Amino acid sequence: MEYKVLVRLFVPEIGEEYEIYIPINKFVGEVVESINQLTNSMSSGILPIKDEIYLINRQTGACYSGDTLIRDTDIRNGTELVMIL
User: Fold this and answer.
1) What confidence score (pLDDT) does residue 78 get?
2) Domain topology for 4-8+15-84
3) d(Cα 59, Cα 40) in Å, to the nearest integer?
4) Across the strands, what pairs with 72?
5) Hey, what long-range contacts does 51-55 have (CB within 8 A, 24 or more apart)?
6) Is the pLDDT of residue 2 over 80?
7) Whole-number Cα distances in Å, 77 to 3, 4, 20, 23, 74
8) Is the pLDDT of residue 16 over 80?
9) Where does residue 4 rank: exposed (0-12), middle (13-18), buried (19+ CB within 10 A)?
10) Which pLDDT value is given to residue 42?
């Protein structure tokens, strides 16, 4: 069974927010890549796919390293994240 957490994702570039489930057994870099593709498709290609994307905790300001597992971060159900391109 793959455990997931429900987070709120804010994407200021396009002024959108999403509630998404992210798996805790994946690396932040893998999740960011998936989120980037998802937001690109949901914005009808307005949001470009970029190599450098930062995932930041909206409350604490923590910026997550791509080589860290989600379960090893403070990301939990209800966490608000900001995706900065």
Assistant:
1) 97
2) Ubiquitin-like (UB roll) (3.10.20)
3) 25
4) none
5) 52/85, 53/83, 53/84, 53/85, 54/83, 54/84, 55/28, 55/31, 55/81, 55/82, 55/83, 55/84
6) no
7) 11, 9, 10, 11, 10
8) yes
9) middle
10) 79
